[in-house]
Amino acid sequence: MRQHAPDGLPDHIQHFIDGKFVDSVDGDTFDVLNPATNQVYIKAAAGKKADIDLAVAAAKRAFDGTWPKLLPRQRSRVLHRVADLVEAQDKRLAELETWDTGLPITQALGQAQRAAENFRFFADLIVAQRDDTYKVPGRQVNYVNRKPKGVAGLITPWNTPFMLESWKLAPALATGNTVVLKPAEFTPLSASLWAEIFREAGVPDGVFNLVNGFGEDAGDALVKHPDVPLISFTGESRTGQIIFGNAASHLKGLSMELGGKSPAVVFADADLEAALDATVFGVFSLNGERCTAGSRILVERSVYDEFVERYAERAKNIVVGDPHDPATEVGALVHPEHYDKVMSYVEIGRNEARLVAGGGRPEGLPEGNYVAPTVFVDVEPDARIFQEEIFGPVVAITPFDSDEEALQLANGVKYGLAAYVWTNDLKRAHTFSQSVEAGMVWLNSNNVRDLRTPFGGVKASGLGHEGGYRSIDFYTYQQAVHITLNDAHSPRFGRGPEAATSFTTQK
Q: What are phi and psi of 244, to 5 degrees?
């Protein structure tokens, strides 16, 4: 497949530190591939500790400057300008994101628009924000004073990178912090656009800094840096464990959205057509490279055969092809390394379950990281494709006979990010959702989020929550201030037995 490169690609990708585009201190670079061909199309600066040190120093200087001292309305205006600039170039952003990630162009456009919405949401939230006040009538007033924490270290993944960067950048900047962003090494292209967007919006130099590079170099240095009090990370669970350990010596604040193996539970009384629409989209959209994908579908036995037949037919008809073609529904996986991982699970699945759709490279796509939408059925709960995160267009379908068995299957993995429940029984829907081990549950719904709600997982799927006021909480200190309204009555230590007696009487 011949790929036409987007117009205006940079010659190479640099870091952005203290308002300037710069190469790595040691001059090192790494290759970036186009997922549809696996051809190197650009080189990016490979950041290391020295580059992180420069970026953190710039962010720390900026934190001592004007940005944290601006009124919320002033920062809000800047963030709204950021949103305007993102919206104005959403089609170009989508084109670059598709080129860099292999995501279908129509889905990439939606992610670019969502990035603008993230900035608008937090721009509005900090103006509307109110802090707690507690009164003891006639005696005391207590209030909460929120303060930004300082330099926020943001480490973002390669799936929908631009949008997920906005999900961290918007609240971090809205609350008055300065940031160092370390984007995923597979997909540095769209991240490089933030620099000009922020510059044009009026963000002061040093408030936003960007260092490209590998996790074990740039990411590790950012996590361990003593002048970075908080880390927000999205990625796999094993990396989250490493970050947790490396952050311990400085007792850093951590927010981590990690892996997922989310169940979609379909009961016999559900609207099967709606459940099919949602579960097919839920695992195959974004090329299956989505943390909240419903990659385990649990179906009540009385409708199991019908569901499997219809699901397999839908999967076989999904359009796999050129990510830049608006008709494409599944594009190319992000990188050959990830392609190899997904295909290894497909081979594992052939020995664990029954394959009814996909299972290999689609016809007519001899190069690039293309995987046909793959459906395994009759999957046992101890199978690796049931238990382990694949993060690609591969789904496992398993039958159940009772509500109790469905719950046991849903909870029978180490992850707990999302869950989806399909039933028209209101009592069952709420009872099941409250018992399932997941940070987020959708009832008779696809993954449609209200940005005010908490986002995060339980078990191996994460630590902490972001979204709405939870993001404000994470990126700020909450300082309690106590004001006495009458004469202070403190115990009078050191005044002799009479004072001690008086103290006892007061108690």
A: -55, -45
Number of Cβ within 10 Å of residue 270's Cβ equals 22
Catalytic residue among 257, 289, 329, 389: 257
Q: Distances from the Cα of 349 to the Cαs of 211, 314, 490, in angstroms?
A: 38, 20, 71
Structure tokens that stand for 5 in this block: 């490169």
Residue 48 near residue 213 (C-beta atoms within 8 A) = yes
- Tell me: pLDDT of 506 over 50: no
Cβ contacts of 49 within 8 Å, gap of 6 or more: 217, 221
In the sheet with 140-148, reading across from the earlier edge strand, the strands are: 133-136, 140-148, 476-484
Q: Give the DSSP H or E segment for 198.
A: helix 194-201
pLDDT tens sequence across 85-132 = 999 999 999 999 999 999 999 999 999 999 999 999 999 999 999 889
- Active-site residue flag, 498: no
Q: Give dist(CA 189, CA 2) in Å, integer.
A: 20
For the chain, percent of residues with pLDDT exceeding 70: 97
pLDDT, average across residues 434-457: 94
Among the listed residues 185, 291, 300, 466, the single catalytic one is: 291
Whether the Cβ atoms of residue 462 and residue 240 lie closer than 8 Å to each other = yes
Active-site residue 291, yes or no? yes
348 contacts 385 by C-beta, under 8 angstroms: yes
- Contacts from 133-141 at CB under 8 Å and sequence distance 24+? 138/485, 138/486, 139/484, 139/485, 139/486, 140/482, 140/483, 140/484, 140/485, 141/482, 141/483, 141/485
- The DSSP element (H or E) to which 107 belongs, if any, is helix 105-128
| Average pLDDT of the segment spanning 419-423 | 98
